[in-house]
From TrEMBL, chain A:
Name recorded for this polypeptide: NADH-quinone oxidoreductase subunit N
Keyword Cell inner membrane among UniProt keywords: no
Superkingdom per UniProt: Bacteria
Keyword flag Cell membrane: yes
Similarity annotation: Belongs to the complex I subunit 2 family.
Class of the enzyme per the UniProt entry, highest EC level: translocase
Assembly with partners or alone: NDH-1 is composed of 14 different subunits. Subunits NuoA, H, J, K, L, M, N constitute the membrane sector of the complex.
Function: NDH-1 shuttles electrons from NADH, via FMN and iron-sulfur (Fe-S) centers, to quinones in the respiratory chain. The immediate electron acceptor for the enzyme in this species is believed to be ubiquinone. Couples the redox reaction to proton translocation (for every two electrons transferred, four hydrogen ions are translocated across the cytoplasmic membrane), and thus conserves the redox energy in a proton gradient.
A single Gene Ontology CC term: plasma membrane
EC numbers on record: 7.1.1.-
Residues spanning the membrane: 12-34, 46-62, 82-98, 110-127, 133-152, 164-185, 209-233, 245-266, 278-297, 304-322, 328-352, 372-393, 405-429
Automatic annotation (TrEMBL), chain B:
An MF annotation (GO) of this entry: NADH dehydrogenase activity
Subcellular location: Endomembrane system; Membrane
Membrane topology type: Multi-pass membrane protein
Protein name: NADH-quinone oxidoreductase subunit L
GO cellular component: endomembrane system; membrane
Residue ranges annotated for the NADH-Ubiquinone oxidoreductase (complex I) chain 5 N-terminal domain, each copy included: 68-113
Keywords: Membrane, Transmembrane, Transmembrane helix
Pfam families assigned to the protein according to its UniProt record, in alphabetical order: Proton_antipo_M, Proton_antipo_N
Amino acid sequence: MTTLTPSLTSSMIAILPELVILVTACTVLVADLYTRDDQKQSNHNLTIIGLLLALIAVGFVGGSVPTEAFSESFIRDPMSDLLKGAILIVSLLTFIYAKDYMRDREMWVGEYHVLLLFAVLGMLIMVSANGFLTLYLGLELLSLCLYALVAFDRDSKQGAEAAMKYFVLGALGSGMLLYGISMLYGASGGFAFADVAAAVASDGVNDKILVFGLVFALIGIAFKFGAVPFHMWLPDVYQGAPTPIVLFLSSAPKIAAFAMAARILIEALGGLQSDWGEILVILSVLSLALGNVVAIAQTNIKRMLAYSTISHVGFIFLGLLAGSEQGYASAMFYSVVYALMSAGAFGVLLMISSKGQDVQELDDLKGLSDRAPWLAAMMALMMFSMAGVPPMVGFVAKLLVLEAIIAQGMVWLAIVAVAFSIIGAFYYLRVVKMLYFDKPTTEVPVTTNASARVAITVNGAAILLLGMYPATLFTLCQQAFPG
Amino acid sequence: METVYLTIVLAPLIGAIIAGFFGGKIGRVGAHSVTILGVGIATLLSLWVLSRFIWHDEQAFNGTVYTWMVADGIRFEIGFLVDRLTALMMAVVTFVSLMVHIYTIGYMADDAHNWPEDSRVGTNSYQRFFSYISLFTFSMLMLVMSNNFLQLFFGWEAVGLVSYLLIGFYTVRESAISANLKAFLVNRVGDFGFILGIAAVVMYFGSLDYAEVFAQAPALADTQVAVLGGVSLMTLICILLFIGAMGKSAQMPLHVWLPDSMEGPTPISALIHAATMVTAGVFMVARMSPLYELSTTALSFVLVIGAVTAFFMGLVGLVQNDIKRVVAYSTLSQLGYMIAALGASAYAAGIFHLMTHAFFKALLFLAAGSVIIAMHHDQDIRNMGGLKRYMPITWITALLGSLALIAFPGFSGFFSKDAIIEAVGHSHIGGAGLAHLLLTLGAFVTALYSFRLYFLVFHGEPRMDHHTRSHLHETPWVVTIPLIALAIPSVFIGWYAIEPLLVQNWLGDAITVKPEQDTLHHLAAHWHGQREFIRHGMQAAPFWLSMAGLVLAAYYWSYVLQRNPKIDVELQQRGGWLTHLLEDKYGFDDFNQRVFAGGSQRIGRFLWKSSDQRMIDGAVVNGSARAVGWLAGVVRHLQTGMLYHYAFAMILGLVVLLTLFVTL
């Protein structure tokens, strides 16, 4: 692998997107002090501009040749380019969808923007980590912001409880990850992924300390994704946190979690694929089963989507455990697509939540097609996509993963995945049925702002178009794993 | 050129989407403007493409625009094959469609009256109608421009869908709903054969692409398949595909849905159930000529089915009293002629008749619609009469259309139908003798029912009530302009098109004919210009038979009718058992109703009661649903809400994984 010579200037250029986000966050922090309460629109505008600039910066510094920076602790490569782009786009959607909701509830303050921006920064750092320390730095920056955001509605008891649970369990998860990292450091003597990979190559599976570290690190990853049995925080946090935060939590961090998994498992511990592959088999089957089955019993839409997340994590793991370039690319495709679908579904929930009336229960969606036909259509589109109905992109994502694991001869696993997807289709289609065939329970009109309408339309169009033209995105995913 | 073809296909689709989804916002004028604009663009470009093929020797285009997926080496694609056959079809489809779009403005102007006042279903029905017919144009273009079987099937089903939606357009009328259900079910039977045929193609050829399949066909000509005691692969594929065509092009015994489809508004009867969709089967067989040529068994089957339909369905037209149903049976009969031409390997003649028929039959339907507008939606010809005085333009165009239909010398129908009868006469495959006889006699029947209709509607004393009569007047220009625009090709197109199409083999490579089965070369070999063809035709039996039919019709329904207004009823009584047989439409409907509908209901009830309710619902479906539900109920209790339980689960997971992977 050829890399450019690291120097301070080139290092700074390589982290340009991160710098832009950092500068934006600081600017918002300061600007917020000097604006009156009725001028908070400027925070929003600044944030949007910052994210757009960062997106441009990603395109500007991107390229097919990887660049290392800051003494090889940071790397910019095709994978990081694509994942950063996806994270920034999904974050943009989050800000746009959440605007009305947060403003109506007087939570549209400077801290909200700053915390979200720092969380984005954390994710960008995670994606570009070239060693365990950088990765952990990004992860903690993300997690700390998320803990605070979950409790953002200070008057909500549920929110506080959810944040507490998330924080304690998150600390436990981080602890395990850190312990795993220390084991790997002990076995290899280095923090860089390359060092660990070298140790694995020389000692191989015989080194129990490496495997020991692997199990702990993997649990950290599984916790971030929310795979069974490390999923317990997910339903409670989804239900308790303000919906815009859940929208954010459920979408972009999954992409970052994928980056973390790819960096640790593939780059550092690729030699132990037979070990972590087996662990992932267990986790993914459990996630598929529990996620899809329990989602059926949910009456709260946010909880239902939480279990749906768990089942999708099962699919992402399936792609990873295939252990082939095709499998990695399909898992990457799946996580990007999932983030888009999740953003869209929660986006609709946000847009139909009126002032003082959160959409929480599935029954609140009844007859939405009468009240807001376009939003109902978008929600149906997201549900169809999540259920894996062609020609929506969710179908392609599932198909690619299944192809990858069948190519590795794991047909039984594919059958299990399909069987649970069919069970899962029930609760997605039930939502569609409620949207179109049930009588509305309320007559309150749905008011939305233009930018959110545009965003949801773009989001829906992306789901449909990516489904019809999956090749572009999938080729980008394949380029991230050149084999 | 790819851009042009894409535009031709997409312009009507965009129009349909705008009118369909935003109909309420853009209003009636917006809806018809946008769809007419879309179809107008498609028409102009199609005519331009056709002119390129005629005068500039444009080369055939065969390319893929979008690959959906590749599975097991079989490509699922959207692509266009535009050769001369396609260009001709595109021009016919878009031109008729454009005329119908314009006409619809007048026909649907007071559509609001057709819906109950207190229901919401009639909201924006006008816009919805325009959206449907534009969508139809898109689907039909996808069908004719396809370069592979998958897209052909897509177009095939899409036109079927729109046809279904439009037959049942008046969802509040029970008769419309049962008619569209019938069309749907009968087409299912045909499509079952069609998709089996496509499956056989995929299985043996390993490709969906026309060019690849046709290239391999000669090599597989002698393959035998172990079905029904062993048949040739080509026969199997061709007959299966033709069963699809029988459904779509309403050939006996799958014709029963077409007369009932007249429940739909008249513009779509003209567009879908006369000029374009029902001819999809004819087009498909012509497109598949490289396959059909390899199986004379299949060709015989096609020939006999076509000829039988042509004659016997014409007869039924004699006893119908609904103006649209008479024209519908005439359509069935004319489709039979086209199919018979295909069976005789005279594909060019079949396509030629398809084209002339599209013009004059669309004209006749639109003229019928014009009469129906004037008669305030009374469709019974026994209540009409003498309309010629009130509606001169409708009258003269309908007369021209009828003359074209009965193959009056010089009119377009004359050239195409005479060519078919002559070609079938030269055919030597099994059943050709019978087919020739039926088609020749058909000429007499055609003239008889066409002019019975013509005289009853336009001549004689007016028989409508006083109120209707006082309101009779010519329909507005949006209705009459399309009539005139369609009357022109109905009269002249045959004269100009016969020489290139049938004599100079203009279609060229688009159609494959084996030399020993070529029945049109006689015509080409003895070609001495259109005048000579007419002179020759006037000495042959079909001409005299149709003149006899014309004279007989004039005698009874013009001359006798003036003295005895009840002559129509008396004639039908005199027919005795024959009339009954015809009025029962040979009992097909009763048979289907009793055997297929009744039988399947009985089987269905049996299966429902015994196996479905007890076995599947009871044990499998509800059982598994209950099991999943129960499991979900149990497992959700794992989520206690207690933090230490959650932490415990994580630690437990850790311990299990460590035990499994580190210590073992």
